[in-house]
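request received
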Amino acid sequence: MTLKEIAVRNLLRRKGKAAFVLAGLVVGVATVVAIISFVNAMTSDINHKLEQYGANILVVPKTENLTLTYGGLSLGGVSFEMEEIRQADLSRIKDIKNAANVAALGPLVLGVAELNDRRILMAGIDFSVAGILKPWWKIQGHEPGNGELLLGAEVARILGVQPGASLDVNGKQLSVAGVLQPTGSQDDQLIFTRLDTAQAFLGKAGRVSMVEIAALCKDCPIEDMVLQISEALPGAKVMAIQQVVKSRMEALAQFKKFSYGISGVILLIGSLVVLVTMMGSVRERTEEIGIFRAIGFRRRHVMNIVFLEAGIVSILAGLIGYLAGFGAAAVALSLFSPGHSGSVPLDGTLAALSVAAALVVGLISSAYPALLAARMDPNDALRAL
Amino acid sequence: MSFVRAQQLVKQYGSGESCVTAISDISFEIDEGEFVAIMGESGAGKSTLLAVLGAINEPTGGSLVVDDIEVYRLTPEQRADFRREYLGFVFQSFHLVPYLTVLENVMLPLAVVKAGRQAKRELAAEALKQVGLSGKADRLPNQISGGEKERVAVARAVVNKPPVLLADEPTGNLDSGNSKEIMKLLQALNREGTTIVMVTHSNDCARFARRTLQVSDGTIVGESHNLPIPADIPN
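response:
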């Protein structure tokens, strides 16, 4: 017979009370776990989407006389005169402090080309980073090689051409390697070719019209990166495309604060349930405690029995609460975020923290009942019977 | 030198005009291995006296010395250790823990003793054998009779082999047959060397003690010595 056995036997005997304490803690822990898991999953989803967002920093020449626009870049009408960025200067971006956050750097040259007697915007890009910068692109055909074109969906529709066709561009015959599936962006109106091909066609060798940068943005200091790139390229204007994500993150942060507040209140209620139930349990056990004290149990032995009981129930509540919270988060995610791309992962750290939190709340809430039990005078306890 | 020395013990409850004196200026000595009965009418103060002797009710005045230990100079936690090492309690209403088996109830005082599980079980089994309940070790208290419960209480009181056994009306809830059994059990324990102090209002039970202290209105009003009762007294 040990104190632990006494505690376990008492819990088994008073199953109803033990279940009540368990339920109080489980509800508290499950709520906290559900909220944390839900918020973490949402944050992870946003980060994932942010990384899939493609380019999130644009570098464009400083100019004030523009009429056509592309992705935030204004072009100075069909003649399009501006001081463009020197391609050689782009190597400075690799030297900025947060260069490690740069996932892809895509120079782009823009200009107007004559295509079958139509004036059309030509873009020369680096296709080796297109997969990172424009992950939403779907090409019918293949990426253009030297002397080949990729047509925007709208261009292909208007011209009525398919991959394999040949087009007259500025008096030269170029073959169509592929056609972009509709993107809903201005890319549908453009013809794309390799950067060097476009530079040669447009007479802009060694120059680029803009640069698209994909920064790895999970906790990346994007404002700092914008500043660092601005300093590296003083003649260029650097912009961050993050307003939508930022506002969503801010909304999530607000939700986090609110949720944590609610969790705190629920945990407090849980701890009060434990306190009240344990107090009742101690009062019911006046006789036992009197016997324990009379036969030589020290105060700390009596306290240990109460704490052991609370500890056993708390550990169980932590485990059940974690699993319940995990399930609730998964359900909540499917209900409230149907387009959610990720899932709620089983998190060992969160499980351990749940058990620890339940244990702390259980033990703190049981401290006063345990003290009450320990202070019980054996003579009073036995005489009162 | 006596094993138990009570000197001018006083116990009062309340204060001022509402002050009630439960025991007043009680002094006596008990030798090691003695069997003493404390008798008196209800409210005479005998149970209070036993609680004071049991180190669970601090007297308002006087001193209690057991085996040269000034009991009420000990801290409450030291007194708990003292009770564990020196005293065994047998209560009138058994006070068994209802959710523990007979064997576990007997093992209860050993729960806070540093000893192996097997050693504890053996001690408890031995105590149960001593009270004739070896066959009922796995029963719960509500599955045994009143006489058996009292015997379990006796086994629990002696499991850690305390030098002093305090019994408060140990036969108060028993019929005459069971009462005699319990008294014979206490007598046997006494013959093995245990000092026994028993509160009773029964003359039949008091006859088993070698000495009887008569308490009235919180003071000892008489003392008598009894003839020893043979161990093989018929039921």
